[in-house]
Task: structure prediction
Amino acid sequence: MALDRRRRRSRATRVSVVLAVLVFVVSAVSLTLGAAGVAPVDVLAALVGRADRLTSFVILDLRLPRLLAAVLVGACLGISGGLFQSVARNPLASPDIIGITTAASATGAVALVWFGITGLALTGVVLVGTLVAAVLIYVLAWRNGVSGYRFVLVGIGFAAICAGLVSYVLTRADLSDVQQALVWITGSLNSIDDVSLTVLGASAVVLVPAALLVGRPLAALGLGDDVAAGIGVRPERTRILSIAVGVALAAAAVSVAGPIAFVALLAAPVARRLVGRGSLALVPAALVGALVLVVSDVVAQFAVPGVVFPVGVVTGIVGAPYLLWQLARTNRIGRGG
Result:
């Protein structure tokens, strides 16, 4: 058993290194792309402070903040999805399926359209709204503990309520407010600024280590509550802490970039498939999430010349078929097929 753990740890390390290299390469390429193409040597010069003023502005003020936001948002969503799926033991239990990001959408839409809240204040409002939604979902799903399917079903119902609230808010708003809210609700990196990037970075610095800490006892729950309790893990406390950290990660990402669809759903299952079953794979999940979002943002910016799509459009196109496949697979397994 100890040998198996060492092998899994070694494989997880190798997978993480490969994914980190891919994220670095794709990120470096993305900095060279744009209406004003920049050679790799000029990108490097800008990063070390030796480029001309125009090149430095393009790289440091326009492209780099967007890239860093894509990496951080993708990583936060990837880890958040991994935590939720591990708590519920269900591959469908990601923040964008069980109502967490939909609650963030509803909170953000109300704040933007009805109260004109933007910037750092919007981040705080979305965080509070998301935490309240998570508490409600957990309480409604509780019945002598929280089972995976009940958690998912309650979350889906809560998501439907929040989606209805978003529709109501948008139908009662001015056209200019609707346009602004729709871009945010779809999920976009177009409005990244220094304040939002600082908030996101600070959140990641605190929450990512917290996720890794809570991930150890959470992995033990895969052995069953009785076995986990026998080795000193408190199952319900571990679930609550994991959900709290997962919600905070999702809220930090959503408050900056909006509810970008399917990144949280995709990242952890892909990471676990790469690392091997039986592993929580939070670090690989973060890297997969970052890679998916950076690539999706490049596609969103340059797939159609002269048009910049919200990145959520691209992740939705990629993620929707995966969701359908996962639903079909879950249904087939449930029937014993």
Remarks:
- The domain at 2-334 is CATH 1.10.3470.10 (ABC transporter involved in vitamin B12 uptake, BtuC).
- The longest helix spans residues 53-88.
- The chain has one domain: 2-334.
